[in-house]
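2024-03-11 09:14:02 INFO receiving multi-entity request
2024-03-11 09:14:02 INFO entity count = two
2024-03-11 09:14:03 INFO echoing inputs for audit
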Amino acid sequence: MQRVAIVRFPGSNCDHDSLKAAHDAGLDSYYVWHRETDLKQADAVVIPGGFSYGDYLRSGAIARFSPVMSSVQQFALKGGPVLGICNGFQILCEASLLPGALMRNAGLAFLSRPVDVRIERTDTPFTSRYHVGQVIRLPVASGDGRFTAAKETLAELESEHRVVLRYVNAGAIDAEPNPNGSSREIAGICNPARNVVGIMPHPERAADLRTGSTAGADFLRSLAAPAAASAA
Amino acid sequence: MTATTPVSSSSASPFPGERPVTPAVVKEHNLNDHEYQMILKLLSRTPTLTELGIFSALWSEHCSYKHSKPILRAFPTTGPHVVQGPGENAGVLRLPDGWAVAFKIESHNHPSAVEPYQGAATGVGGILRDVFTMGARPVAVLNSLRLGPLDDPRNRYLFAGIVRGVGDYGNCVGVPTLGGEVSFAPGYSGNPLVNAMCVGLLREKDLIRAAAHGVGNVLLAVGARTGRDGIHGASFASEELSEKSEARRPQVQVGDPFTEKLLLEASLELITSGFIVAIQDMGAAGLTSSSAEMAARGGVGVELDTSLVPVRESGMTPYEILLSESQERMLVVAEPARVAAIQAICEYWELSATPVGRVTDDGLFRVIHDGLTVASIPGQQLVDDCPIYYPKAAESPDTVARRRLAPTVTPPSNEIALERLLDAPSVASKRWVFEQYDSTVQAETAIAPGGDAGVFGVPETSFGIAVTVDCNSRYVALDPYEGGKATVAEAARNIACTGAVPLGITDCLNFGNPEKPEVFFQFREACRGIADACRAFETPVTGGNVSFYNESPTGAIDPTPTIGMIGLLRDLTKRVTSHFSRPGDRIAIIGTTRGHLGGSSYWAEVLSCVGGAPPPIDLLAERQLQRFLAAAANQRLLQSAHDTSDGGLAVALAEACIGGPYANSTIGASLDCAAYGTGLPDDALLFGEDGARLVVSCHPDNSVALEQLAAECQVPLTFVGRVAAASDLSITLRNTIVRWDVARLRQIYMNAIPRRMRQAPLVSPEEGP
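2024-03-11 09:21:47 INFO inference complete, emitting structure
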C-alpha cells in the first residue's frame, strides 16, 4: 500500500479531510507535524488546506520556513509526488516548488462555492484517472485564490503543458466561471517534472458518496492506482 | 469547614494604587443600591475595588440572568435524548451509536454595534469554545443577524464588517457555516444583532463537565496571554447602547482564530487524555466567571494568584487580570501530578499552560497578587446569591394598536408584488453572505446553505444532523406569544423539510431593557410561546443565552428570540432538498391555506404596513406535519420539500423554481389554484402566511403513496400542478392567470443584496476615510 504523508502546520484545517480521503482511496495516510523532518518513507506528500500560522503575514509565507518543508523540498527534487491543495498550493508557491503566486480574490472577499473545472492534463501522479477535457464540480473556499504569474511564466506554463486544472463555464447560471480572477482561468499547475501539483479547489471535499459527490476522489485514487499512461 | 456550610469572608486589602470604593464607583460598575447593600451584608465589610469588579461581572445581567431566571424555569429541559440540559457551557443530546451532539447559541450584539468585525469574530470564537470545552469537536456554525435597512450607509458598513468578521474567524478555524438567517428592519439600526451558534460532535463517553473537584488540584491558564482587552465586556453587554458606547470600543475583544484552532486541538486532546478534571472557557468576565462558576458547580473554593497569570503587558492590576476578556483562553483543573503531562500536550500545540491557582476547601473565592490578598468572597454566594428580579410586565398599548392596523395603500399587481418581495433583502437570497463562509470544510456537508436547513454527515456513520436558526421578529413584535410559538414551529418545519426529526433547541433571547414593562411583557410571552411549542414538539431547551438592553437612542429592538434547532436524519442518503428538480414531477401544497396576511412580509415589504395580528400557530398541525415529512422522506416519496413562510406560497414556489445558488438552470411550474383556497382574495392566497404549510414535489409514481401517507398523518395535501421544463411560473387563480419568468425572478432574488452592498463603506461612515 502506498504511504502518503499529510503535512500538518499549526493552522492547517483540511488535514482530517485529506487524511480520510487518502485512506478512502486505499492509501496508507498519516500525519507529519511541521516540526518533524522525517517523512517516514512516504511515497507521496499532501499539503492540505487551512490557514498555516494564521496566514497572518501572507498566505503560506511562514509555513515555507517550517522544518518539514526542507524535507518536502528534497522529496520533490527527487521526483516524489507532492500535492498542495488551497493553502498547500500557496505554500508550494512560497517555497518556489511551483511558480507564480496566489493573490487576493478579484472580488476582494473570501469565496466559498462550487466551481466547474476542466482537467487539462492527466500526465501527473494526481490526475491520471481523469480524462483530458473532463469537467468536474469541486468546492473552492479561499480568500487568496487568484493565480498570478509573470507573463513569461504564464507562457511557459502553457507551452510546457503545465496547467493541470482550469476554471470553465459549465452551466451554473449566474455564478462567475472564473471565481477569483485567476490568470488564464488557472485552477491548478504542476512543476516541469510534473511530480509537484498545486490546485485551489478541494477534491478531498468531493470524495464521499454519502454527502453527494465523488468528483474529486480520483485525485488520490490516481496515486493509489494510476490509470495506464496516456498521451496527454 | 466543609464547602456546603455557609462561609464568611476573611479580610482583603486594596491593591496598591486602586481607587477607594465610593457610591460613584459602585454606580459605574452597574450595581444598584440594593445589590450593593447585599454585597456589604455578604462580606460584612466594604469590598475592595477588585471585589467590586468581581461582583459587577458575576452579577451583571449577562452572567447572572437576574431578570430572566424565573421565566426560563418554565422551559421544558428534559427528555430521553437529553444528556446535558441548561447550566453547562453547551447542551448535549444523545445520537445513535454512542455519539452525542453539543450545541449552543450566543449573542455578541453590543461589541458588534461598536466594532462589527472584531465583535462578530469574537462572537464566533466564544461559541466555538463553549462547544469544545464539552469535549465536542465543532462541526458546524450558524448565525443569525439583524440589521437596519441597507439604504443607510452605516448599516451597510455594519453588515459588511459583521459578515467578514464571522467568516474570517470560522473559516480560519475550519468549521463550516451550514446555515443562518439575516433580516433587516428599522428597529435594528444602531443595535444590530449577531447571534452565533455552534454544533459539535462527541462520543458520549468523552463528555466533560465544567465542575472543579479535588481540594489541592491545580488551576491552569491555557492558551493566549491576558491583555487589557474586553475588560468589563459582560457589564457592557448589560446596559443600553448610547452615543457614549463608541467609547466602549477598546472594551471589544480582539480575536485570533489561529490560536483558537490550536486551543481547540489542544483542548480536545487534553479531554480525551483523561489528564484533566474540568475545563472551561474564559469567556464573559474571563478568569473571574470561569473560576467562580467551576468552583460553585463543584462546591469547592478556589484561590487564584493573579501575579502568575501570563500577561501581554506589564503593570496589569489584579482587577484587570480578573476581568479581562482576552480571547482564546481556557481554565483547566487538574491533579498536581498531571501538570507536566498537560504542559507537554499544550507545548506540542505551541500553547502555554500555567498554574495560576488551586482548589481549596474553605469555599472562598480568594485572589492573591504577589502575596497580598486582594479579594476574598464566599464563592457559592458570589455565584448564586445575585438578586433575582421579577419586573413588571405590561403590553404596550402601541402593540395592541399595531395588531389592529391594516394597509392603506392600493396593492400593486400580484406579478409586481412577488418581484418586490424577492427584492426585499430579508426575503432575497443570502448568497452574498454565505459565499464568504466556508461551508464545505470537514468534508461532511450534505446540504449547504441556501435551503431550509443545513445537513451534515456524522463521520463513519450512516446518519446525519440537520441544523437551522430562525426567528420571525415581526411576528414576535406584534404578538409575542404567537410569535414565540411561530419561531419554534418554523425552525422545526425547516428541520423536517430535510427529512430529519427535530431533537432539541438552544435559544438566544434578544430583547430591550427588561426593566421596562412593555419589554418584559414581550420577553415573558415570547418565552411562554417557545415553551409551549417545545413541549408540543418534544424538543427540549438545552441551553442558550439572554441578551437584554438591546436599545439604542432610537429605542428598543424588535424582540428577537432566535431559535437554533437540531434534528436527526437517520439515513443521510434520504435527505430532501428545497428545490424542484425534475420536469413532470407533481407539486402539492401541504397544510391548510387560510390566507392570513397580518404580520406578513407582503404587508411589510410591499404595502409598507408592519401590523396586523400574526397567524395563530396550531401546534398539533405542526407536529403532524413534522411526522409526515419524516415518514415521507424515509419512504423516499419526496423530490423536494420547502417551508412556506415569509411571502407565503408565491415566494415558496418562486424559490423552488429558482433553484439552488449554483443551479445549472431554472425550472418552471404550472399550477391550477382556481379551486384551491376557496373564496380567498388572490393576494391572500398567494402571499398569506399560515403555519404548518409546505410546498413539495414528488415523482408522479409516488403521488398515491404520498396522498395515503398524508391521510394517515392527518395532514391536508392538495396536488395543484406540475414542475415544467420551461422557465415559467404560472398559477391559475379563480378569475385570472398570474405568470412570471423564473429567470427574471432569479436575477432579482440573487441580486437584491449584492446590488445594495456594492458601495459598502469599509470604515464607519462617521469616521470618514
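2024-03-11 09:21:48 INFO post-check: The radius of gyration of chain B is 26 Å.
2024-03-11 09:21:48 INFO post-check: Chain B touches chain A through 46 residues (CB under 8 Å).
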